[in-house]
Specification:
six-stranded mixed sheet; 8 strands; mainly beta; 116 residues; globular; 14% helix
Length: 116
């Protein structure tokens, strides 16, 4: 799948002259946190990674620090995250990665992995 995605982004389409020169397409994938599977959105245009408070409660995770971020949502209003979980271990395709992730009181998604 990674090769297919890399090929898609590396080769601009010759049949669509209105296509921009930079590509940002969100991709869904399955990740594992504490041996539980979740669907995540990988979005290279998102500047931070976010997790819903529902999953934080479900997994018994603790918020490590306050957040100074102010998130501008797609629907308009700005939202302040509940805090940050530092070095949360997520597993993608057998590879474990520690990430700092902002905790959001959101219901429209479970996890969003940005370019941070």
């Amino acid at each position: 799948m990674q090769t297919a995605i890399e090929t898609y982004f590396a080769e601009p389409s010759s049949n669509n002259s209105t296509q921009p020169s930079t590509y940002t397409t969100p991709v869904k994938c399955n990740i594992k946190i504490r041996n539980k599977f979740y669907s995540a959105i990988i979005d290279s245009s998102a500047s931070i990674s976010m997790i819903s408070y529902q999953i934080v409660k479900e997994l018994g995770l603790k918020i490590d620090t306050c957040s100074s971020s102010l998130i501008v949502s797609a629907t308009g209003p700005s939202i302040r995250p509940l805090g940050i979980i530092k070095d949360l271990l997520i597993e993608i395709e057998g590879i474990t990665i520690p990430i700092d992730i902002e905790v959001m009181d959101a219901t429209s998604y479970s996890l969003l992995l940005g370019n941070d």
